[in-house]
């Protein structure tokens, strides 16, 4: 049985929320070394809010882009720190991209019943690649950052680049390329001096520490992979 795309994305956000809750203390410890020691709490609260918001929706009558729009609003409402606007922008860019992939009827509320009658299949590999690129671009746009600044972009940009390089592969192969790139990017932040965010105030003292935003980005991408790489699950 084929899973509806909106349900697939809702499961993805639930998996992200669970993973962030599990990693909350570790992420907070990382942030304590170079930041305000609240990143783990922030990420856990933000994605808990996203899953709560999606739980109130009729996913069978929802376009995939709407899932990301709801996620953007819920995350931003729950997270007042700088991470809130960054991921809200990422999710809105993802929604904008997904709207270009959806049938015209899925963008018209009056056509919702026909959408439910014609469930959208799980996101294709090409769509997943576009999704990653849109999210990375949204974070870079909002944060005015770049690779090497010792931020979450040091995981997101390599992930998006790896996805583009893996064009034409199946979903499982796509994520086998994406995750190592993101993980290596996050690990590389140990040897970087922070150029943005609160960690930038530390200067050379930020050396030797993994950026917590890059670490949480890897956790997020790992959770995405667990759901999106499997095109057979119908839960």
UniProtKB/TrEMBL annotation:
<dbReference type="InterPro" id="IPR004007">
    <property type="entry name" value="DhaL_dom"/>
</dbReference>
<dbReference type="GO" id="GO:0016301">
    <property type="term" value="F:kinase activity"/>
</dbReference>
<protein>
    <submittedName>
        <fullName>Dihydroxyacetone kinase subunit L</fullName>
    </submittedName>
</protein>
<feature type="domain" description="DhaL">
    <location>
        <begin position="7"/>
        <end position="226"/>
    </location>
</feature>
<dbReference type="InterPro" id="IPR036117">
    <property type="entry name" value="DhaL_dom_sf"/>
</dbReference>
<dbReference type="InterPro" id="IPR012737">
    <property type="entry name" value="DhaK_L_YcgS"/>
</dbReference>
<dbReference type="Pfam" id="PF02734">
    <property type="entry name" value="Dak2"/>
</dbReference>
<keyword id="KW-0808">Transferase</keyword>
<dbReference type="InterPro" id="IPR050861">
    <property type="entry name" value="Dihydroxyacetone_Kinase"/>
</dbReference>
<keyword id="KW-0418">Kinase</keyword>
